[in-house]
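Continued from yesterday's entry.
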Amino acid sequence: MTDTTKDPAGADIAEQAAEALAAKAHHCWARMAALSIAAGGFIAFGAIAYLIVQAGGGAVSGPTQLLSGAAFSVGLILVMVTGTELFTGNTMMVLPAATGDVTAARVAGAWSLVWVGNLVGSVAVAGLFVAAGGLEGLDGTIGDAAAATMKSKLDKSVLATLTSGILANMLVCLAVWMAMFARTLSGKVAVIVGPVAVFVAAGFEHSVANMSLLPIGWAADPNSAVPWGAGLRNLAFSTVGNVIGGASIALILAYGHGKLIREE
């Protein structure tokens, strides 16, 4: 008897996702490094867009938060359209590892390289933004927004950082999963904006976004002691949370569509 409960489109995407993620994992190391630096910079552009809306939005409110999230989605749109390497999206490489199409060692190497590349690109664009006088924009309110954003992130407990990292990357990877197979540019944009707007508006922790938001926040508040320990803790636990969130989305969707088990 034919199984009429399975969505053929969803099953096709799950199968293609494993192949596409395996191909990304086997990318040339040097090219992967270059593309990861670019992706970090693109996400930093999204972070800058977020700060501009935060600065001009007045009192914190639901609409302001959602608009800030929509602005931040520019970063992920740039990543997906240009085909660059983003650590949080690449957490879904656990799928080809689970199907045996790529080794765990290769995945670990790709994750490490892309994470560092994202950091380099993020810090570079953050530094250029600060040097260009970006913090003085909108009568200095962009700097105020950056400092407030940094404080809100560093004030979170380890548990809050970890769990919000999980939720953030569940949403990001849903956006990436859909965007990988959108047939048109407008389709890619449409499926990215919603999930990203939700995760940003909710204040969830995205490790790569924080690679630019934290340095910009530190530059905006030079009179305070630079909380390096708190910053490293945020990056560490948001990264772990992002891995859990991204991996869970890939594995759950693949398993649900029968791509991790042999069907009789």
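--- second protein ---
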Amino acid sequence: MNRPVRVLVADDDPAIRGVLHVILAQGGYHVEEAVDGSEALQAFQSRGADLILSDLQMPGMSGLELLRRVRALDDTAGFIILTGASTVENAVEALRVQADDYLVKPFNLDEVLLAVERALSYRRLLRENRSYQQHLEDRVAEQARQLEALLMDALRSLASAIETRDDYTGGHVERVARYAAATGREMGLRRDELRSLWVGALLHDVGKIGVSDHVLKKPGRLTADEYEEMKRHPEIGGVIMERSSFLRPGLPAVLHHQERWDGSGYPRGLRGEEISLQGRIVAVVDTFDAIISSRPYRDASSCEFAMEEIRRNAGTQFDPTVVEAFFRAEKKNFPDDPDTPSLPAVE
């Protein structure tokens, strides 16, 4: 059973309150009275109301001030101004702060009932529209979450497919992405920056699609020509990332993860902060996981050895600031964070 519509009447004249109470109660409304604006505001804060009929001029808080306060609390509640001292300025101000109606005393009771019905009808539509919008927003948000989950799975599948062409044991790209995100958090990256970093770290070796198996799987030292072919994979990956607005935020990690702090890396020989932060972070975490991972031509090394190698190469191969952030993240054991960066929105 629906509750009766609650109407609050605020007027310092008891006769007017009484008349309004009677006619509104006869109309099936639940009516509450207040002798001034302050009492009306307290009643509204405590018990709420669907509609307020308020005198304009009352001791203490005026009807316009009451209207402002009520709008700040609930802009879907109806509000009708009643006044015996009508001025153009008051009427304009009442409408400016979103009064539903402005009635001049002495008023016709039928006119009051019509204004009440009109105000309640408008506010009902407003609330229904808000509810519909919220429902629609919730549905869109849920669909976005589902789409993001599907895209994340697709990215991971792509990264795993790339990984099978290399000689790493499984999980390398997932670990690199997790280490990168943890390091990025230590460096204070924003959520959108972490998302971009995560995508780039997960796909940092996507360009190896364009490297032949003979070179990629060769157990021994590469020849000069083979090494030149291998050095092409960041730029091949960059082309792949650039073609997709969804992948593009992670392009810097793919293009720059083989650059070195001292300028001796590839493909462009960038130096220092010429290298993107994504690239500098992935360079560290990729090296760390490579050292602790088993390969067909060597056994895995310990984490302690890997950390010492990274420390030894800070300032030459790696950005020292990134190395320190990585060490801080590693001390936390790279915990799985429930707030792991989600994917960037598709443009």
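The chain is about 55% helix and 5% strand. Residues 10 and 346 are 53 Å apart (CA to CA). Will compare against the first tomorrow.
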